[in-house]
Amino acid sequence: MLVENLPVGVAIVTRNDGSIIERNKTIMEMLGYRSREDAPADSLKETFYDSKDMEAFMAFSRANRSVKGFEVQSKRKDGSVFLASLTAVPDPGDPENRLIIVTQDITERKTAEEKLAHIASIPQLNPNPVVEINPNGEINYANVMVEKLFPDFMQAKTSHPFLSGWEKIIEELDIDETNRSSVKSTSTGGTTFSTSGIRRQSKACFFTAPILPTAKKPNGSCQAK
Q1: Are residues 208 and 193 in contact, defined by beta-carbon separation less than 8 angstroms?
Q2: Residue 75 — φ and ψ, nearest 5°?
Q3: Tally of domains within the chain
Q4: 144: domain CATH number?
Q5: Model confidence at 35: pLDDT above 90
Q6: What DSSP string describes 110-178?
Q7: Which domain holds residue 88?
Q8: 3-state SS record for 21-52
Q9: Which helix (H) or strand (E) holds 56?
Q10: What pLDDT sits at residue 183?
């Protein structure tokens, strides 16, 4: 019997077709059902908004034995959709034929991440110093925090300690086409910064340097030119 009080949805399904063998109360509530009797009894497919996602999830689990953080759109009883993260491991009782799937509703987390990404995409609102520099070493943009923290920045430009090693960061991004960002630590005036280069469709990048340790990680964005 599955643990009913777990804060995540748990279900046991068959590996070959996703037929549901058992599921806990949390997954029922997550999907909008009042009881097991009220819920679809046959297949995991009924909980996926897009059946192709279910097919991809099951194929991936068969090929890799286990799955972690597989994000899909799940469907509630009333037809509404929410974002779910699925993790699957072989059932110890029958590892060759059954999977234990843990489901988490990540809708709120994703919404929060999107809001943070939006803020980071607006350099003027970013509370950290943000500079846009192209591969030729020309400063395209610097937000107000750059001037506030580094009064001498526009005079020193790329030779300022804040952008120490900018050539290497852009070189790393150019060498590895699959690498979308590069991060390094720099120090100036006794303060440590985490400087990141972020590439999108062009090579013009924003370098964001949160003061450590108050910020857990750097954020930044690039704009295609």
Answers
A1: no
A2: -115, 130
A3: 2
A4: 3.30.450.20
A5: no
A6: HHHHHHHHHHHT-GGG-SS-EEEE-TTS-EEEE-HHHHHH-TTHHHHGGGSGGGTTHHHHHHHHHH-TT
A7: 9-105
A8: EEECHHHHHHCCCCCCCCCCCCEHHHHECCHH
A9: helix 51-64
A10: 59
Tell whether 95 and 139 lie within a shared domain: no
CB-CB contact of 51 with 43 (8 Å): no
Per residue in 206-220, pLDDT tens? 565 555 554 444 444
Residues 121 and 47 in one domain: no
The candidate with the shortest Cα–Cα distance to 89, out of 27, 20, 12, 148, is 12
**CA proximity to 102, closest of 51, 53, 55, 57:** 57
The pLDDT tens digits of the residues spanning 147-184 come to: 888 899 889 988 888 777 777 777 776 665 555 555 56
Find the range with the poorest average confidence among 20-24, 29-33, 116-120.
116-120
Order across the sheet with 81-90: list the strands. Answer: 20-23, 9-14, 98-105, 81-90, 67-75
Judge whether 184 and 198 are in contact, CB under 8 Å.
no
CB 4 within 8 A of CB 21: no
Nearest Cα to Cα of residue 35 among 84, 77, 83: 77
pTM higher than 0.85, yes or no?
Answer: no
Confidence check: pLDDT of 191 > 70: no
Backbone φ and ψ for 156, nearest 5 degrees, come out as -80, -30
Claim to verify: residue 96 and residue 127 sit in the same structural domain = no
